[in-house]
Amino acid sequence: MRQSGAVTSDPRTDDKTVTPAVGAALRCFGDGDPLYAAYHDDEWGVPVHGEAALLERIALEGFQSGLSWITVLRKRPAFREVFEGFDPEKVAAFGPDDVERLLVDARIIRNRMKIEATVDNARAVVALHDSGRTLDELFWSFAPDAAVREHPAAFADVPGWTAESKAMSKAMKQQGFRFIGPTTAYAAMQACGLVDDHVATCPVAIERTRAIAVTQGPTT
């Protein structure tokens, strides 16, 4: 994922990538890899709702810790298969034998703590349901006011965590969730569209800004 220009940090991978020359409208990340580009264009910063979809994003952000996001994307179909589509009820029923089974499945990231955390997180979702609440309700309660946010000018302006992600992390840990520190929580907020951190010069940001302007109509 190399382009001519200055070196900056890619928020999805923590790898070093190169920004385009001034005026070039290239993606924030993902140029040069169709899978990565599609994720950037169609998913990152787009609102996600639903228990299974949110559990998946939280789990994958946890698995990504210490690795590149493209590695997780390439393994996502296998993750979805072995974790039963991230159906909370099904994953919550996983036992020690299931964990051992997953630890020898080379199609996924084989990390015991992350696998066990995913099972525990599914159980936390079920516990929320038992108390009359949902993961969707809890997760989205930490969305900042979109009206006061602007697209960052550069990746240097994209935070690693925020007051909202810190509060989310604390609240979710109190509900039994694991592997959801403030940084992972913020990455999940980006992945699920609670925040949209596409830089202002990114073609996705430009198109979304244009679409909002068209929807709102001319100002007087």
Automatic annotation (TrEMBL):
<dbReference type="Pfam" id="PF03352">
    <property type="entry name" value="Adenine_glyco"/>
</dbReference>
<dbReference type="InterPro" id="IPR011257">
    <property type="entry name" value="DNA_glycosylase"/>
</dbReference>
<dbReference type="InterPro" id="IPR004597">
    <property type="entry name" value="Tag"/>
</dbReference>
<protein>
    <submittedName>
        <fullName>DNA-3-methyladenine glycosylase I</fullName>
    </submittedName>
</protein>
<dbReference type="InterPro" id="IPR005019">
    <property type="entry name" value="Adenine_glyco"/>
</dbReference>
<dbReference type="InterPro" id="IPR052891">
    <property type="entry name" value="DNA-3mA_glycosylase"/>
</dbReference>
